[in-house]
Amino acid sequence: MMIETFEIWIMIGFVLVAIDFVVIFRLFMGRIESKKNIKNAKWQETRLLAAAIGKKTGINENIRISDYFKISELLQGDPQTKENLKKTIDVTGFEKKYLKKLKSPFETTKIEAVSYLSVLGTEKARIALEETLKSEKTSTVRLYIANGLADIGESESIPVITDSLLNASRFYRDKVNMLIADFGADFHHYLPAILHRSEIEIKELIVDFASVYFSEILKSYLINLVDTRATETKRLRRHYGHGENRTCIACIHWHASGDGKNSMLCPYQGEVKPTDSCRRHRVLPVSVNSGEAYHSLVIKACNILTELYPREMACEKYLNSEDREIKNIAVGALSNFQSQEKMDKLLFYIRQEDTARGAVNAISRMTEKNPVYFNQVIRAFLEEEDIQVKKELVKILSLKIEYFIMKLTKKNNQDAVIIVKEILRLGRTSEVIDFLNKNNDINVENELIAIVKEVLMGSESLKGEFSMYLEERLVSKCGLTQPEEAAPSEKNKTDKKLTRGLLLILMGSFLLVPAVYCFRHWNTLLIMAFQEQLKLFVMDFNYYIAFYAIAINLVYLVLLVFSYISVRRQERLWNVKDIAFLFKKKMLPSISIIAPAYNEEKTIIESVNSLLNLKYPDHELIIVNDGSKDHTLNTLIRYYDLKRVDYIYESRLNAKKVRGVYLNRSRPKLIVVDKVNGGKADSLNVGINIANKEYVCGIDADSLLEDEALLKLASLTLDEETETPALGGNILPINGCTVEHGQIETKGLASSKLARFQTIEYIRSFMSGRLGWSYFNCLLIISGAFGLFRKERVINVGGYLTSSGKYKTDTVGEDMELVVRIGRQMKESNRRFKILYAYNANCWTEVPEDMKTLKKQRYRWHRGLIEILTFHRKMLFNPSYGKIGTVAMPYFFIFEMMGPLFEFQGYAMVVLSILLGILNYKIAIILFVSVVLMGLLVSVSSLLISEKNGRYFSTRELITLIVYSVLENFGVRQYFSLWRFGGYLNMFRKPAGWQKAERKGFNAKQEATT
User: 858 and 997 in contact (C-beta within 8 Å)?
Assistant: First the structure.
């Protein structure tokens, strides 16, 4: 055999050793260069700042444009100092260099050129950017150009940027509209040139501008827009609403396409041209003003009028509009006026079915601004006879329930008693329960409990609420008994069909090599002695293990090459994104961070503080307490002074019951949810139901994000013109770091040997595996510790996989499964998409430091992988799913799921070959080269890529990690692999659920290091 040529393996071994040393040398040289660059950059920044304030320093030919870019970012609010700074650099030289790069065929180079030209801000640079914007086809590059022109701020650029909106994607238009709005008065002067234009993109621009700029022209434009829509609705109703062949206006779905042409959707025929007629409906061509896009625009115009010009919106023509949405917005506008007349009008509209919702919200706002009108609502409620109207009014009164409770001990409290009873019967119990638990006045308690007992007599559901959430003493006083804690659900049953399939795979894996052996040596099977046959079989198996090791390490090395390319691109693009750009309105998506918490009392406050203090323009934090058995919930309630409230949300995903929602109005970004235990995936689904933002970010509650982690992850959406339904961040072990007030004070390597082995494992997995797969758009795993998903995509696919959800099944690998399901749906619907990974968006999480916990974790991971691959087996080797079906899924099936089965046999054969005395030095060398040297190359190369983002470890710690990279090949990786084999066998047992690991907590680590 060619592979048995010993000299070749010796040569390969020496080459790999040489490459390993080169990579290690480059790793340490890179640290030295990094120190020099940091020192030089600080020196240059100091000189540039000195020059900016008028000190004579002379032009330094070594000044880099990147240094000038950073200083310019700091001086954005000081034009004179910025102008002084420009005099210290070679503007002409930089301008010439980047004007040339502006014509580059490479997007990243072009974006860099755009950013640096915009910071130079010369006339020649501006003209070049305008010309490039006219011809550029890629939305991401166009966005950077538009932002550069907005930063230069010359009014001559306004027509060019405006025209770039035509036929552009929604991604581009939403962001560039606000960039144009930054021109302020200059754009307002330009308005007369475009007010008459009918393109939907131009109308959207003007409406967006009207939301941030006040003028009579814009007010008139908004009014005209709303009036036109109202007239169109009235005409359509008149045309279709009468006669024998009348058609309900709701059945006609008008759609304005991006190019402004008219088209129409009919539920019975599909898309038809404006001149066609529907087989079932009588239709006539209508202008683009009947389009869905136009309707959304009109509603936005109504909301702007309500906020900025409420008197115009709260007039009779809109209050009597035939468009229900316009009418409700007009009703809401009445709350901006403090007058008895407006309150009377609102009480009139609350009696009308189509305006009740708007009236309730408006009255609530009006009474909040001026409590004097609250008495009028009380009188209206007491005098009202219509049950439905009383229900609407009690919604408003329930917001002031403490006021009525305190009146219970006063004379003439009959009205208060009636109102409290009605509020409870409506099901708004949270405020009453919270009040009773915190109240110290025995008289108030007695009066309120008397009312509660009367109301509870007729409602079993209310009895359950009060018995579950009231303190034990109060439960007894109400004549109730506290419910016993439900026994753990027996939903987790072994899937017999799945286990049969896995058993066949297991048997096949054990029979595969013997079958290959029989095929290769069929002519000697009946001739050679059994002992000789065994020796030959064992030797063959050792070679197969070498082949396997070479194959998987070659895959890693190929991925590493493209990981490096990805890192270089991300690094270059991040360096040209200044904070001002990222914090511009609508530039980045809004995000709801969801952190499931189960028995996290030791770390929860540090985690929440860290997440609340993230540097991001628009985010909220939702902590989901998944039925913790410790004091996680009480710790949060006490620390943040939370109050249980009746929180209205839509349950679009099925999940376990929510026990309560807790808020503190002074901390509007924080929402705490308490729910029945259902596992991590179920908790995430609850969080998604409550989330109010465009994206949801799943994160473990025992993890900490770096300040800019969310910013770095979300900023990847600016670099892709295709949809990004999911993005993943980098995970690093926090063991060894010191944490204070939710912030990582110092980073370091853990003292635990087990944690150190996991550190190198994490770096290898994320830097080579996930970055590389992301490059090929084959990324299937986004860690549950830190992932970002488009909310609507998650809901459309049914949320995280749980037994309570759409697919009625559970998985412990909810993070990977969701990514696979989203990718599957996108492929099946022929939508272009990219799932991305950010190498520099760091999340720090605690890793197990004892063997028992680590074993549970690895069992859980492997079970999740198997469940996902079997659940989505249709995708395996299926060309219909592109590279995901033909490359990514087969890789995970062969190397990740099946691999441990062959590795277990291989390790057994190595031991057997030692016992038989046939493990000669040639086989040992082959295994050493294929397993140790190639594995070490993958590990140190991953370390090299990791260190590009910054210095996570000291030089001494890096040396330690390299040593551990070598040591892990002599038993540790093999032992971990045996756990994966154990995880496979564990599939034949009943699932054990989430199996949350015990945590030491951040404070424990902090004390250990001091």
Answer: no
Query: Residue 601 gets which letter from DSSP?
Result: T
Gap between the Cα atoms of 884 and 815, Å rounded: 17
Q: How far apart are CA 63 and CA 76, in angstroms?
A: 20
Q: Could you read off the pLDDT of 942-969 as tens digits, one per residue?
A: 998 888 766 788 889 999 999 999 999 8
* d(C-alpha 357, C-alpha 44), whole Å: 61
Alpha carbon separation from 598 to 188, 534, 594, 603, 994 (Å, rounded): 54, 52, 13, 11, 10
Q: Which CATH number fits domain 554-986: 2.30.42.10, 3.60.20.10, 3.40.50.300, 3.90.550.10?
A: 3.90.550.10
Instruction: Give long-range contacts, CB 8 A cutoff, 24+ apart: 964-967.
Output: 964/756, 964/757, 964/759, 964/760, 965/760, 965/935, 965/936, 965/939, 965/940, 966/932, 966/936
For residues 800 and 868, is the Cβ–Cβ distance under 8 A?
no
Over the stretch 361-380, which tens digit does the pLDDT of each residue have? 888 888 878 888 888 888 88
Helices (H) and strands (E) in the chain, counts: 46, 15
Q: What span, in angstroms and rounded, lies between the C-alpha atoms of 741 and 670? A: 17
Taking the model in full, what pTM does it have?
Answer: 0.84
Domain boundaries, the chain: 7-168, 337-411+420-427, 429-486, 554-986
**If pLDDT is split at 50, 70 and 90, which confidence band does 694 have?**
very high
**pLDDT value of position 306:** 92
Query: What Rg do the C-alpha atoms of the chain give, in angstroms?
Result: 33
| Distance from the Cα of residue 16 to its chain's centroid | 40
The answer to whether the beta carbons of residues 686 and 794 sit under 8 Å apart is no
Angle between helices 387-397 and 356-369 (to 10 degrees): 30
Residue 387 structure tokens: 């049950």
